[in-house]
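Re-run with default settings, no changes from the original entry. Doing this only to confirm the output is reproducible before filing.
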Amino acid sequence: MSRDKWKKVLEDCFEKLSLIKKCQEETRENFAQFCEFIAEPAFETLGEALKDYGLRTWYKKESSNLIRFEMSFPRSKEIQFSYGIYLPPNSIQMKLKLILRGRRTKDSPMKEWVEPFFESLQPGNILSLSKEELMEDLLIHYRDFMIEALTSSD
């Protein structure tokens, strides 16, 4: 009996590796759907609304695991604020990260920071997020950044 135990361990090992690969593939597919059906429509809608405030915006899917929305300084082409949604490599669930970048003036360097994306939302519920909730989150991050930038003594 114990002579064949190693075969069961071997079989179990490769079953688990196969399961991990399957989860990673499903997670990448879910992120692609999130980008296509939630993030891109939200970014398009928000971009149109921000034109009224003199802000140019654009978004792009920079890779299969990053989509970014960027905003210019008012009446400028220079990027002031960037909101990136990132799927870390080898993820087995939709535990996304926010990559935020911003600067106070056109001449100042970009400051970058990373934080969890919708930390209160379970990874399995990311696809149930509405485009309005995403736009609200983006605007809250932009507002907080602008308040800090406008009131900072640095």
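Helices lie at 5-50, 131-151. Residues 5-50 form the longest helix (46 residues).
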